Amino acid sequence: MPKAYWINTFRSITDQEKLAAYIELAGPAMRAAGGTFLARGLPAAAFESGTVERTTLIEFDSVEAAVAAYHSPAYQEALRALDDGAVRDLRIIEAVPETSA
């Protein structure tokens, strides 16, 4: 089963306190669900329609695991803490299958 990647891009942040509360809860929720943070923070570069707001990349063992993490009670609590404090674009994509040489 291919790994999956959770890509969370903030389009705008309107409440830094709500964002801080979200981060406090979301990180542990993702790790508890089996997620591994690969990158997070402000982009080093953005092109075309890219935004320079906070972006997070998390690896999961599967799409199902990433979707389950989103629906988990712990992550839903993090979303309630964010409560309209930001506009985001969240995607879960399946990894490209490994090829044999």
From TrEMBL:
Q: Which InterPro entries match?
A: Dimeric_a/b-barrel, DUF1330
* A UniProt-annotated Pfam family: DUF1330
Q: Which SUPFAM superfamilies would you find in this protein's record? A: Dimeric alpha+beta barrel (SSF54909)
The name of this protein is: DUF1330 domain-containing protein
Species whose genome carries this gene: Micromonospora craterilacus
Task: Domain (DUF1330): give its ranges.
Answer: 3-96
User: Where does the source fall among the domains of life?
Assistant: Bacteria
